[in-house]
Amino acid sequence: MSEYILILNTCPDKNTAETLAAELVDLNLAACVNVLPGVHSTYRWQGKRETADEHLLLVKTRRDCYAGVQQALRERHPYKLPEIIAVPIVEGLTGYLRWMDEQCKC
Questions:
Q1: What secondary structure letter does DSSP report for 105?
Q2: Per-position DSSP letters for 39-94, written without gaps between them
């Protein structure tokens, strides 16, 4: 099982995305958070198909930080049910992974 994960989280706007990204890094829960603009989402919510233009956060962190990232996002996110999905990082540049270890203090 990988000790490193990538967490996906969508945000309604640039300001929310940048604020959440900065807070995750400042709290040492993530080594790096990329904000990708221009994500167009189609989903079903409360029985209706919806669409939204969103910003996607790519949160690079350690598996042992997941609970802290989830809690921080749940407390700060404007969505009632935010997307918080973690996928394992199965390979990575050794130096980069070492840097991630140094940054994540969960």
A1: -
A2: EEEEEEETTEEEEEEEEEEEEEEEGGGHHHHHHHHHHH-SSSS---EEEE-----H
Query: Could you tell me the pTM of the whole model?
Result: 0.94
99 φ/ψ sector (left φ>0, alpha ψ -120 to 50, else beta): alpha
pLDDT at residue number 1: 59
Domains of the chain by residue range: 4-103
Question: Maximum distance among all alpha carbons in the chain?
Answer: 46
DSSP string of 4-38? Answer: EEEEEEEESSHHHHHHHHHHHHHTTS-SEEEEEEE
- Nearest CA among 85, 17, 83, 15 for reference residue 55: 17
pLDDT of 49 above 80 = yes
Query: May I ask the CATH class of domain 4-103?
Result: alpha beta
